[in-house]
Amino acid sequence: MKEKPIPKYMQLKQEILSWLHAGKLKANDQMPSENEIAEQFQMSRQTVRQTFGELEQEGWLYRLQGKGTYVSTPQTQKSRDVQTIGILTTYISDYIFPHIVRGAESALRARGYRLLLSSTDNDKAKEKESLDMMMSQPLSGLIIEPTRSAEGNPNLSFYLSLDYQHIPYLMINERYPEMNCPSLIVDDEEGGFKAAQHLIELGHRQIAGFFKTDDLQGVNRLKGFIRAHQHYQIPLLPELVVHYATEEKRQKPYQSAVELLSHKAERPTAFVCYNDELAIHLLEAVRTLGLQVPEDVSLVGFDDSSLAIATEVKLTTLTHPKTQLGADAAELLIDMIENKRVNSSETSKVYKPELIVRESTIGV
User: Fold this and answer.
1) Cβ 353 vs Cβ 190: under 8 Å
2) E strand or H helix at 299, and its extent?
3) Residue 276 to residue 170: CA distance in whole angstroms
């Protein structure tokens, strides 16, 4: 089922909230007019009006008849009965993240909670800034996606502070290993195994794997990829495993794919990719060399994102619950808040990825 894009009013709402939290607009400052914002963001006035209405209802803004809309004072904002839950993700507007946020936001609204959203851009320093900002607010709880989870947790003091203050929190997609908090994650190792297994059962023996390994999702997908080769007793050449960091994601996998495919005699017949975004990127590398997917190279992605069916070659991929994960995370955190439950890994949830076979894989 195709994921719906994040609604425009919600995108605008989070943008305006970011202005308020960053201090770009202060208490009693007048907001730009509906017309000005509509023109700036290329949205209808109705969308802007809907956003202003929600922010006014939640106590962030107030309206003076005939004069305009203004920023509420912090005291007014904090005095509202609506409780606030923060969501901290690596990205907000890219790839599958809008769907995770949309699922959480829908569940929070239904239960009468307000959403405070921030992203780290997958940067540890920005994670620190975001946690600092979040914890300066009257938060009831936090949903956190760890930043570069395979590279340690330099911001441990913030998480220990959350524990000390008895602020419930949970983690999504992965969890820092030292934190004993609930988490909602995909079984990434099983997904990596299933991706390689699918290709092996189609007769492929030269399978290249491309994995981003500064997060534990990539580490575990790689682990499953290797395990599948061991299980089926298929030799795995070291040069067929390409690992990269976030800042290398545009260059290194692409260049490695071109190099591997240039060796005609030992050319890999299939690629397992860290995610659908990378699979689409490597599809272009295949075409650059005059080759075809799946006739010359089979491709497997991960996450069953909207990108998986965006090109003429529909991707074989592994599922990720996305919107459901966001909703489940919000429901679990609200349950922790309202039932005064302590942070504990006992309530963690693991989603089993399913293989969706489309047009990008064939047998050899």
Assistant:
1) yes
2) strand 298-300
3) 26
Predicted pLDDT at 25: 84
The radius of gyration of the chain from alpha carbons, rounded to an integer in Å, stands at 23
What is the residue type of 112? Answer: G
Residue 27 has which token pair?
A: 């208490």
* Length of the chain, in residues: 364
Nearest Cα neighbor of 21 from 123, 134, 142, 158 is 134
Q: Mean pLDDT over all residues of the chain?
A: 91
| Residue 273 DSSP label | E
Closest CA to 173 of 186, 191, 190, 192: 186
Other beta carbons within 10 Å of 9 = 19
Residues paired with 212 in a beta bridge? 244
Name, in order, each residue with C-beta under 8 angstroms of 20's C-beta and a sequence gap of 6 or more: 60, 71
**Is a pLDDT exceeding 60 seen at residue 4?**
no
Nearest-angstrom CA–CA distance, 327 and 305: 17
C-alpha closest to that of 283 among 310, 321, 319: 310
Alpha carbon distance 323, 76 (integer Å):
32
Taking the model in full, what pTM does it have?
0.79
Give the number of other CB atoms < 10 A from CB of residue 111.
Answer: 16
**Do 299 and 361 contact (CB within 8 A), yes or no?**
yes
HSE of 333 in the Cβ direction (CA atoms, 13 Å)?
34
Which range among 114-118, 199-203, 247-251, 325-329 shows the weakest confidence by mean pLDDT? 114-118
Point out the least confidently predicted range of 123-132, 222-231, 269-278: 123-132
pLDDT digits (tens, 9 = 90+) for 42-82: 999 999 998 898 888 777 888 887 788 988 876 555 444 56
- What is the DSSP secondary structure assignment for residue 7, as one 8-state letter? P
238: number of Cβ within 10 Å: 5
Bond preceding residue 294 cis, omega within 30 of 0: yes
